[in-house]
Amino acid sequence: MEKQIIVAGDELARQQEYAARVRSLARRPQTFHIVTMGCQMNERDSETIAGMLSEMGLRPEKTREKADLILYNTCCVRENAENRALGNVIWLKELKRERPDILICVGGCMAQEEGMADRLKKQYPFIDLVFGTHNLHRLPEYLWRVLEERNPVVEVLRSDGVIAEGLPQQRASAFSAFVNIMYGCNNFCSYCIVPYVRGRERSREPQAVLDECKRLVDQGVQEITLLGQNVNSYRGGGGEFAELLRRVDELGVPRIRFMTSHPKDLSEELIAAYGELRHLMPNLHLPVQAGNDDILRAMNRRYTRERYLDLINRLRSVKPDIGLSTDIIVGFPGETLAQFEDTLSLVETVRFDSAFTFIYSKRAGTKAAQMPDDTPAQTKSERIQRLIALQADISREILSAQVGKRETVLVESVSARDEGWVGGKTPRGHMVNFPGGAELIGRLIRVEITSAGRNTLRGKRIMEE
Ligand code: SAH
Ligand code: SF4
Ligand code: F3S
């Protein structure tokens, strides 16, 4: 077992000290704007960053161009994510020319990538601060140095990572919250850069998770999503994920979700939890990546197609109406047409509610980057189009089958397109739009589904006994 370093106590106090110093500076940025890329981990990290910046006396500013401090929380899981991040940063150079006082900060997974900090320093000297995923909690100290020394600060730690407890947080939503239960990943799927930029797996203590969840319940949060790259390998305090889930369920939050699950570690207990826990939503994101055993082996996924299908059957026998979603990579190095068609047939067999589909993207430093990849880009793009079309048909059929049902919707937002409409999700995770006003946001509302579109449902509010 790796040694786990928990940051709290003294180090936390030291950072609070820096935050107070920044706050008392006469010349300091007054407002901030965070651009978050990538997954829910980054969204949750951005909430922590917002919390720290608020402690330093800064206020959120909606318009990026107007903010005194602009922070990019980056992703590098695929090349286009990285290009988007870099493209944005270059654009900021212009802004900095107009407003030389603004501060530009880059954090997150791309900043943590091997060699990237140096590259940023050399190629983009106008960036004021670069920090990685393992030292996010030291933002107050870094910002203090940037302001005091008026020199760029570039600090990316190589350590496998720490767990920082007790950091401030400014949540993006009042009614739905992310709670980290673990950090990092040990799986080293051959295509994936995440283990290199997020470090080794480390689980929070169950009590720390439960305390955070309890506070959220007390604040009236309606939905908690537990987060980890692979929640199924959670081992906090020696306990397993299903056990933690059970204890969160007892806190009484109306809706519990979690992500992400790795099929190889999906336990019997977790499957059983779908039949037993009152607040666990009937929904599971279970990335399959491919439907062919040779490709799965080359990906180092450590399960077979048969084992995956067996898991789906067992989940459905416990919870017949469970909503399933997945991630699929098309065009992994060496993937043949027949192997790709195995993915199509798996999709047909499982009938996922939805699927996130990606063309394989080569990431430097990963195993797959060494594998010969001679499938033309054009072929990969044709394959993904076939997959997307197939999944679209299945999604539409599943949505159509919801018409006439009565569901509870957690209202998230007012519709951007239709005035007087609001939208939110059913327990299974389908988006429903129905007539209503902003006062419904954050509430659980009973709705009858009246029609199905391509990606969403429409409904009307109902009153029940
Ligand atoms: N920890 C999560 C996923 C994190 S990345 C899990 O294991 O499920 C989210 C998704 O991005 C992955 O499921 C995979 O489908 C996709 N992905 C990761 N690396 C990729 C790469 N190099 N090219 C294309 N897609 C990739
Ligand atoms: Fe990447 Fe695999 Fe870890 Fe998910 S489980 S983060 S895909 S290495
Ligand atoms: Fe991207 Fe990092 Fe998440 S690489 S997908 S933001 S863990």
Describe this structure in words.
- This protein is an alpha/beta fold.
- The protein has 14 helices and 21 strands.
- The strands form six sheets. It has a six-stranded parallel sheet, with helices on both faces. A five-stranded mixed β-barrel has the order 17-18-19-21-20. It has a three-stranded parallel sheet with strand order 9-12-13, sandwiched between helices.
- Strand 18 (421-425) and strand 19 form a beta hairpin.
- The longest helix is centred in the C-terminal third of the chain and has 24 residues, at 377-400.
- It is globular.
- The structure holds S-adenosyl-L-homocysteine (SAH), iron/sulfur cluster (SF4) and FE3-S4 cluster.
- The site of S-adenosyl-L-homocysteine has 17 residues, from strand 15.
Helix content: 25-40%
Structural class call reads alpha/beta
Total count of strands: 21
Major sheet details: 6 strands, parallel
Please tell me the overall pLDDT.
95
Radius of gyration: 23 Å
* Each distinct ligand: S-adenosyl-L-homocysteine, iron/sulfur cluster, FE3-S4 cluster
Broad shape? globular
Question: Gap between N and C termini, in Å?
Answer: 54 Å
Low-confidence regions: none
Counting H and I runs of at least 4 residues, what is the number of helices? 14
What share of the residues does DSSP label as strand, in percent? Answer: 15-25%
Task: Strand order, main sheet: write it out.
Answer: 3-2-4-5-6-7
